[in-house]
Specification:
Pfam families: BPD_transp_1. It is a multi-pass membrane protein. It is found in: Cell inner membrane; Cell membrane. This is ABC transporter permease. One of its GO terms (biological process) is transmembrane transport. By secondary structure, the protein is an all-alpha fold. It has 22 helices and no strands. It is globular, with a radius of gyration of 23 Å.
């Protein structure tokens, strides 16, 4: 205990950089845009039936998509956690592909299936994104649940379903609830999917903030909606943090190596899981087929600027812009994410107040749920106060992307670092290793594969980021997702084919990254 205070001081110093970045590049822009928009009209916006109709649709579609994601994710979680079958590696990679696909890719994929979209398409598309969150989060806990209690219930005459609901489900409930909270957050703040599938008729808080800020310049209305969104996000993050803590505590008490060959009715669950995997492939196959409707015309057009010069960059220039921005965003997110994880793990070892740990953790998750448009517009009215006027800097897009990616890095690395046996650290310290040497010799080697997985995930998500990038990217530096969004909104069959071909190209890169992550085989890769 003599080292508790120095450890606490060092952890807080380590957390200072990511928290400072959060304050400057997130809290300051958000507060600025809200303050700018606050005025006498806020009350009218909050009391408007149209506002609450948008709130109702936002929460309704998010709840429906979450329910679909949970129901379809549970059979997949069983397959990954409880069975030892050929093909499980493919399933593990296949369910992760939708999670890291760019929203514009998924939006176009579902447009190819549903035409003009609508509520059902929005719900299914959001669920499509998030099946992996449920499957892998629940599987991570389920694989450590002792089978003996289930076997005892079965030997006493309980049916398979009664055993699941009476014995297994209560143990899995924290993981299910935690993943559902995360899925609900992702669905409630969905932007690209609703923008492409809403058809101008259906709007969520996110798309309405975009409309009021960019097209109507209604800062008062956008600020009011941003406050509603921020309040709901904070509530969901707090609930998710509490449930994550309970899930982790239960996981540490379980036993591993529970996978075996299915027996009896378990084969029905396996069939259901494979049915989910096939369903996840349908939009992807539809998208690829759509890109070849006119032969290779769409792919040839990637070297041009679309129908009658619709774009200011060629498709290949947009690819290079995407790669550069994603690279910058990834290394910055890794720096911030690793420092945050080190601070949180160190605080846990020093037995700091749980409220302090949860506050830092929740603060770093906030960018996941606040409108990217709000942050982007806030950049344009605040960052001129910093040296160099970042508003005209090519780093503006990577900065915004890093905000979105950093929480995913934290959620991937933090559970792995927390699970490392503390006795290994104590043994290294007993042999005279300094704290930084303990990290170098123990933590870093054991977490190296998860770090590589976090890097790949961060790069894939940054590569396909659409919300903030669509607002901040200049026409001459547009990334591939932004180019796709602009092509979809402009007339011309060539633009349509170019958009589908570009989506297919972006999807192939994403799939390659997911396969690389799966090759690392780092278990459930954190919480995702």
């Amino acid at each position: 205990m003599a080292h508790g205070r120095p450890g606490l001081t060092g952890a807080l110093a380590t957390a200072a950089l990511p928290l400072g970045f959060l304050a400057v590049f997130f809290l300051w822009p958000v507060v600025a845009i809200v303050r700018l928009g606050l005025g006498p009209g806020v009350g009218a916006v909050l009391s408007s039936p149209d506002t609450w109709s948008i709130v109702g649709f936002t929460l309704g579609q998010a709840a429906a998509a979450t329910a679909v994601a949970v129901l379809t994710g549970l059979p997949v979680a069983f397959l990954l956690a409880r069975t030892s079958l050929w093909g499980n590696g493919f399933v593990r990679a296949a369910v992760m592909v939708p999670f890291v696909l760019p929203t514009v890719v998924v939006g176009l994929a579902f447009r190819s299936l549903f035409g003009d979209g609508g509520p059902l398409a929005i719900i299914l598309a959001n669920a499509f994104f998030n099946v992996a969150v449920v499957a892998r989060t629940v599987a991570a806990l389920w694989s450590h649940v002792d089978r003996r209690a289930e076997d005892a219930a079965r030997s006493l005459g309980a049916s398979r379903w009664r055993t699941f609901f009476s014995v297994t489900l209560p143990v899995l409930r924290p993981a299910i609830s935690s993943s559902a909270a995360v899925v609900f957050l992702f669905c409630a703040t969905s932007f690209g999917v609703v923008l492409l599938l809403g058809g101008g008729e259906y709007a969520t808080l996110e798309t309405e903030i975009y409309l009021r800020t960019v097209q109507l310049f209604d800062l008062t209305g956008a600020a009011a909606l941003s406050m509603l969104q921020l309040a709901s996000v904070v509530a969901v993050l707090v609930i998710g943090a509490i449930l994550r803590r309970r899930s982790t505590a239960l996981r540490l008490r379980g036993r591993a190596d529970t996978a075996r060959r299915p027996v009896g009715g378990e084969w029905g669950i396996v069939a259901a899981a494979w049915g989910v995997v096939v369903a996840l492939m349908v939009p992807i196959v539809s998208l690829v087929a759509k890109s070849f409707e006119s032969g290779l015309d769409g792919y040839r057009a990637i070297g041009g600027t679309g129908f009658r010069g619709s774009l200011q960059v060629t498709g290949w220039e947009a690819v290079l812009n995407s790669l550069r921005a994603a690279t910058d965003a990834t290394w910055l997110a890794l720096l911030l994410g690793v420092l945050t994880c080190v601070a949180l793990v160190t605080l846990g070892r020093t037995r700091a107040r749980p409220s302090l740990i949860e506050t830092i953790d929740t603060a770093m998750m906030l960018p996941l749920g606040v409108s990217a448009v709000t942050v982007g517009f806030g950049y344009l009215i605040t960052l001129d106060a910093l040296p160099g006027d970042l508003r005209t800097s090519p780093l503006l897009v990577p900065l915004a992307q890093a905000l979105v990616v950093t929480p995913l890095v934290i959620r991937t690395l933090l559970p792995v670092l927390r699970s490392i046996d503390d006795r290994l650290r104590q043994a290294a310290a007993t042999l005279g290793a300094a704290p930084w040497q303990v990290w170098r010799e123990v933590d870093i080697p054991l977490a190296a594969r998860s770090f590589l997985a976090a890097t790949a995930f961060a790069y894939a998500v940054a590569l396909g980021e659409f919300g903030a990038t669509s607002f901040l990217a200049r026409p001459e530096s547009a990334t591939l997702p932004v180019v796709i969004g602009r092509l979809v909104a402009r007339p011309g069959e060539l633009n349509n084919q170019l958009a589908y071909a570009s989506c297919t190209l972006l999807m192939l890169v994403t799939v390659a990254i997911v396969i690389a992550v799966d090759r690392l085989r780092v278990g459930s890769v954190g919480e995702f």
